[in-house]
Structures are given as structure tokens and as C-alpha cells.
Design brief:
This protein is mostly beta strands. It has one domain. The protein has one helix and three strands, in the order H-E-E-E. The protein has a three-stranded antiparallel beta sheet, with no helix packed on it. The two termini are 17 Å apart.
Length: 57
């Protein structure tokens, strides 16, 4: 879980990381050799809209 997620408690349906970039949770295994691509975590609001919740560069 991202550190911002535990501090903020926005009303939302959930969070998503589109495209499964290398370095994101679940895509950070040893086969990637420590590579980390930049990515955004999107918050999915109760009305279905999205916004950038957190960015990793």
C-alpha cells in the first residue's frame, strides 16, 4: 500500500495503476533487475471519475 493511501482516506471506489508499469506493486520481481518505470496511481471516485492520487518517478 502506498504511504499516501494510509494517511488520506478519500471517499472512493478504489485505486488503480493503469498498464502495470515495471516497479509498481506486483511488477517488482527480481526478473526486472531493479528497473522502475515512472507511473501514476489513480483514485476512482464514487462518481466514476478519476484523478491522480500519487505519482512515482
Amino acid at each position: 500500500m502506498c504511504s499516501a493511501c494510509s494517511r488520506e482516506k478519500p471517499e472512493a471506489i478504489g485505486l488503480t495503476v493503469p498498464g502495470m508499469p515495471v516497479g509498481s506493486p506486483g511488477m517488482d520481481g527480481p526478473e526486472y533487475g531493479g528497473r522502475k518505470d515512472p507511473y501514476d496511481v489513480l483514485l476512482i471516485a464514487m462518481d466514476g471519475s478519476t484523478r491522480v492520487f500519487s505519482s512515482y518517478r
